[in-house]
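To the wet lab folks,

You asked to see what we're planning to order before we commit. Fair enough. Below is the target structure as tokens, and below that is the sequence we designed to fit it. If anything looks off to you, flag it before the synthesis order goes out.
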């Protein structure tokens, strides 16, 4: 062993001892980096994830690998990956979490849990010992401010007054992701419904997109009336958007848009409620929302397709205004 390597291991051993770890684990696990363990964890967990979105998020935040191969701003663990997993300390974990703890609380909280998962896996494999420096209760909760409880169901939405200018920018981009996002906006659909679309779901003559029950959140078939521009996009892409689950979100980040893909559904709903006279039930049906009132649900036998057609045409005309 070279003198330089001996000094390196001695420094790592002292760091481990200072953190209450067994210094012998440093010698035993030399070369077992956080990055290698994280990659093994992601690979082992992949079969249990319900969709590609979960896999993409874990890969981006832990491994710095964007779905489209481009560099990602979500590469939060770049400083951890080269470190011996046996010597990672609370200071290393805080260096990753503190810069985003207040500005991106939900992301930071999920990232902390993922780091904890990787370090637990390392301990289970006897690659490290001692306390998990990413543990929250009784540990990091004493060092980081408690974040506000997340209110589920609220996504950052672009004000509807800004949507036409944004759509104009989208149409200047020659990319499948731009077409998919524009189509998502014009149909007020969920991203999963758009990305899972198949050519057989579209009726070009009737200008109707029928999303099968298996791909709908409520588990019921949903018919979407298509505006001229939405139909044009379907024809241009051949009825299928060949993209990863994160492609549209990545495009929003590159365009520096302070909104989520799902948030455009809120933009649509705010516009419909504030700027049109379409009935509430028609607007809710356009979003494929479940009717919570049992009596109302019993009496509504139709999906109001033609009434919704007028609504979606008006929305497209608003979004595509010069």
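Sequence we intend to order:
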């Amino acid at each position: 062993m070279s003198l330089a390597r001996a000094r390196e291991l001695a420094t790592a051993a002292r760091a481990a001892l200072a953190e209450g770890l067994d210094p012998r684990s440093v010698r035993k696990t030399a070369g077992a980096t956080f990055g290698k363990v994280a990659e093994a964890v992601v690979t082992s967990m992949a079969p249990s994830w319900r969709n590609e979105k979960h896999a993409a998020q874990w890969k981006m935040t832990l491994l710095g690998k964007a779905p489209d191969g481009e560099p990602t701003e979500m590469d939060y663990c770049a400083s951890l990956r080269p470190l011996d997993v046996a010597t990672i300390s609370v200071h290393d974990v805080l260096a990753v979490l503190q810069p985003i703890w207040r500005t991106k609380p939900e992301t930071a909280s999920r990232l902390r849990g993922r780091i904890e998962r990787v370090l637990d896996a390392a301990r289970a494999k006897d690659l490290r010992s001692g306390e998990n420096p990413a543990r929250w209760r009784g540990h990091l909760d004493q060092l980081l401010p408690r974040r506000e409880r997340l209110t589920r169901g609220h996504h950052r939405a672009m004000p509807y007054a800004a949507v036409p200018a944004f759509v104009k920018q989208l149409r200047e981009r020659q990319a499948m992701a731009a077409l998919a996002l524009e189509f998502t906006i014009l149909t007020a659909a969920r991203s999963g419904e758009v990305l899972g679309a198949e050519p057989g779901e579209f009726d070009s003559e009737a200008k109707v997109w029928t999303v099968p029950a298996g791909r709908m959140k409520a588990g019921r078939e949903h018919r979407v009336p298509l505006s001229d521009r939405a139909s044009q996009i379907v024809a241009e892409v051949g009825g299928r958007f060949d993209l990863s689950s994160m492609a549209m979100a990545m495009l929003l980040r590159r365009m520096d848009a302070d909104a989520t893909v799902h948030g455009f559904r809120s933009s649509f709903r705010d516009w419909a409620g504030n700027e049109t006279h379409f009935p509430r039930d028609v607007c809710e049906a356009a979003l494929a929302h479940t009717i919570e009132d049992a009596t109302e649900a019993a009496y509504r036998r139709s999906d109001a397709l033609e009434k919704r057609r007028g609504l979606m045409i008006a929305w497209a005309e608003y979004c595509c205004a010069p």
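Structural context that might help your review: The longest strand covers residues 208-211. The longest helix spans residues 105-124.

Thanks,
Computational group
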